[in-house]
Amino acid sequence: MRRLAIVPVIIVVALGLAFTGRPALAQEHEGGPKKEESFGDKHELALKWANFLVLAGLLGYFIGKNAGPFFAARSAGIRQDMDESLRQREQAEAKAADVDRRLANLEKDIAALRGQSETEAQAEAERMAQQTAAEIVKIQANAEREIASAGKAARMALKRYSAELAMGLAEQKVRARMTPDTEDALVQGFVRNLKP
């Protein structure tokens, strides 16, 4: 890479050396007095051309030597970049396809979740209804037991009260019928039963 950077410098130096006699030629074309060319001028011009040809040959050699590998490396680099770009593009397309697939499945997943939540809500409502019905049955059974117990206690209290009333009424009737003669007859009958 550094060799190729040296090439433009060499070209500029070669052109500068090749045309160092250019001001004299410029005077000739500007209408200055024409001099006849001497052998030294021709020799100098030939040396300049020879110098130019040597520099051009060296430049051609260095360019030919370095340009092939440079352009081959550059082509390989470009080819590698293109392959990398193609690989990244394929990865991006695969990711995009995966995202599209997930988005398509997302709606199905959402619908499935909705259905599942509705099913769970329905099952929960049924479970709550069954639990409520079971609680109602328990409460009714408990209430019936309490009512039966309260009814039994009320009947017992009523029987006791009835017995007390009957006893009181019988006692009043017996007292009303009890006379001293009846009392004596009862005591004598009791005493008779005690004797063997």
Strand percentage = under 5%
Radius of gyration: 68 Å
End-to-end Cα distance: 158 Å
Large-scale geometry? rod-shaped
Count of separate DSSP helical elements: 4
Give me the strand/helix succession. HHHH
What can be said about the biggest beta sheet?
none
Structural category: mainly alpha
Q: What portion of residues is helical?
A: over 70%
How many distinct beta strands?
Answer: 0
Question: What's the pLDDT, averaged over the residues?
Answer: 80
Unreliable residue stretches: 22-27
Task: Record the SSE blueprint.
Blueprint: H1 2-18, H2 22-29, H3 39-177, H4 180-194
Annotation keywords:
196 residues; mainly alpha; 4 helices
Characterization of this structure:
This protein is mostly helical. The protein has a domain at 2-91. The protein is 91% helix and 0% strand. The protein has 4 helices and no strands. Helix 1 packs antiparallel against helix 3 (39-177). It starts with a helix and ends with a helix. The model is unreliable at 22-27 (pLDDT under 50).
